[in-house]
Specification:
The structure is a homodimer. Chain A is α+β, with helices and mostly antiparallel strands. Among the domains of chain A are: 4-62, Arc Repressor Mutant, subunit A, CATH 1.10.10; 143-216, SH3 type barrels, CATH 2.30.30.90. Chain A is built from eight helices and eight strands, in the order αααββαααββαβββαβ. In chain A, strand 6 and strand 7 (201-204) form a beta hairpin. Chain A binds chain B through residues 84, 87-90, 94, 97-98, 101-102, 105-107, 109-110, 113-114, 117, and chain B through 84, 87-90, 94, 97-98, 101-102, 105-107, 109-110, 113-114, 117. The structure holds a DNA duplex.
Chain lengths: 220, 220
DNA sequence: AAAAATTTTTAGATTTACCTAAAAATTTAA
DNA sequence: TTAAATTTTTAGGTAAATCTAAAAATTTTT
């Protein structure tokens, strides 16, 4: 059984490990809004519990058990986000903080029943995949919008940025999950992208285009 | 802002204050499964924060703020219990522990939307009243089943015992909330009560009868 | 391959919520 | 109304998770 804090460390390490193999102390500290010295302390504790492998000065990796624990927290977080949006009518930019709390409620029964109540969703309101109760993720085929060429089309199926400001911006432009899009132009000057939606045309900056994920339905 | 632990103390004091005016240190300790010395420490802290009035050796009472905080936690607990039973199909004897955790999730928006989603329920699965968002309880008129005379009838609307064993027992006898009952006999020997339900007759001990609450529809 | 810069760890404190043991106050009983 | 029993508080300590400041290890730069 892990404490609230231990769970947060495991989750953070899990997410950071999606980018690098050995997760560094400073990276964890920055992510968790704490100091490197505190991270070192906690890492030792997690290592003692067999949740991470740790070599001094070399960063950490999750053990099998540590990884499973982290995935379980991710699962809970994303299921609660679906609940908040689908059942309680929260907007996709409003759910993160509450889900950060709900993810720590300890009851296997609760999550299994919630999963069923929600219809066993495969993705959360931002398109992030929800692992099943065995920790397995559905395979996802995302391409960053920025990588598409003029004429390519696809469906918005995710975002790689969860800040409220970014999500509100997309909402305003009508770029929400499930929308069909086609690239009509890419501006040489600043790399901004002109996008054709079913009913209108919108222009987004290169920065925004980087964080929209598309499930492609073929090149032109 | 209160900690998880402070919230639990306030809730415990609130419930104990339903029986006695000045809540004693030992009573709190017993209820919270902790030691009197720890309670004294926490009481001082709560007094410093203006949540309880405290005179050494005389026990505590909640201040207006403390009471409102406690009522808010009770509200959250009971709403979550309704969610668990109505939406996730938990049984009424399975919800307490999970609700003990859920009641500490801090989001006003969440609870208001949950309340709406559940249809603004007035009572939880055990018949306990749910305060509205201003902390006001609907007036309830309960009589203990034990106080009814032979021939009296009414509707089961609550229980004053929440142990899983007790609730499972009632479930098995078919004595669940909303059921119409009539007292057909009270045994002189042991005070056990014979009850007529719509479809059957059941016998319950005096001890069980003490903890069933009835909204009476008149004497015979 | 030293020197400089960065990263990480250690050492020693702090805060919260506990604890035990002993002292003090209050209540009950003789 | 003392003595005994009970309740409550105080005093001193512990474990978890944090911190600052300084030391040690590693990496980068020259």
């Amino acid at each position: 059984m892990q404490s609230y804090t231990e769970e947060n460390y495991l989750k953070t390490i899990y997410h950071l490990a999606e980018r690098t193999t050995n997760v560094q102390t400073n990276a964890i500290a920055e992510q968790m809004q704490t100091k490197p010295a505190s991270v070192t302390d906690m890492i030792k504790k997690l290592a003692d519990k067999g949740l991470v492998d740790y070599i001094k000065y070399q960063g950490v990796t999750l053990t099998e058990i540590g990884k499973n624990t982290a995935i379980d927290i991710v699962r809970k977080h994303r299921l609660w986000e679906v609940f908040l949006v689908d059942k309680l009518n929260f907007k996709w930019d409003e759910v993160h903080d509450v889900a950060e709390e709900l993810e720590h409620i300890k009851s296997v029964e609760l999550i299994e029943r919630l999963d069923e109540f929600l219809g066993f969703p495969k993705a959360d309101p931002h398109g992030d995949p929800i692992p099943d109760k065995n920790g397995r993720f559905a395979k996802t085929q995302f391409i960053k919008l920025i990588e598409l060429k003029v004429g390519d089309s696809g469906t918005i199926t995710g975002v790689s940025q969860h800040s409220s400001a970014f999500l509100k911006h997309l909402e305003k432009l009508g770029l929400t999950l499930g929308k069909q899009i086609q690239i009509s132009d890419v501006t040489d000057f600043d790399g901004s992208v002109e996008i054709k939606l079913s009913d209108k045309q919108v222009n987004i900056s290169r920065e925004v285009a980087k964080h929209i994920l598309i499930s492609s339905n073929g090149k032109n």
